[in-house]
Write a structure and sequence with these properties.
Layout (H helix, E strand, L loop, with lengths): L11 H21 L2 E3 L11 E4 L4 H6 L8 E4 L3 H12 L5 E2 L8 H11 L4 E4 L12 H9 L3 E8 L2 E4 L2 E4 L4 E6 L5 H7 L1 H18 L8
Parallel strand pairs: 1-9, 2-5, 2-6, 3-4, 3-5
Antiparallel strand pairs: 6-9, 7-8
Length: 216
Amino acid sequence: MLVWGDRVKPPVRTRLTGHTYGIYYTLCIGLFRPTVRVPRTVMPPDPVLYYMPHGDLVPGVFAARGFRHFAWVNDNTVGGYAAALPALAAGVDVFRIGRGGRRSPYQQVRDFLRERTGPVGIFTDGGRRDGRVRTSLAALAKDTGRAVAPLRVRADRAWEFQGQSVPRPFSTIRVARGEPIPAAALSAAGTERSREMLQHALDALSEAAPGGRETP
């Protein structure tokens, strides 16, 4: 898995919390070693825009080594920084959605997608973590010409913490993806209809994807 972009330095409180989470993640990767199941057909090198709930961020870090040439668009939240720590320790950069700059977050992601030639993953519900697909996802497909497909990265045994799914030690993480929806189909459907199509595809994959049971 390739995480691309600028290194980030969040506020002190965020860094402290992130380092606390990062220690646990690093221990899990280095000692507990969750079993990762990534079928070879899951991540072809096609320029598809994969979207997933923000709650899949932490399992995605554990599964990172199963991906190849996969860019991950992330924001500067506590969970985002914490999950990036193992990648940073390995010398991998993180693409950060900046705030308050000349370009809006949408423009930054759009330009990033235009620069990349391989698959890219994005969290469609952002920091809200409500599992709701945003209308901007279909707009990104239209502006970049990328097909869009849902992606789920889940552990069979996990804790729930602040909207994040945290895999338990020695759990099994599985990756599943839905069929790509062409950008032309989303553009022809219109704004609200395209959002409904993407939401339905994500919900259907969530129901069918293995490893979806989360233990409190």
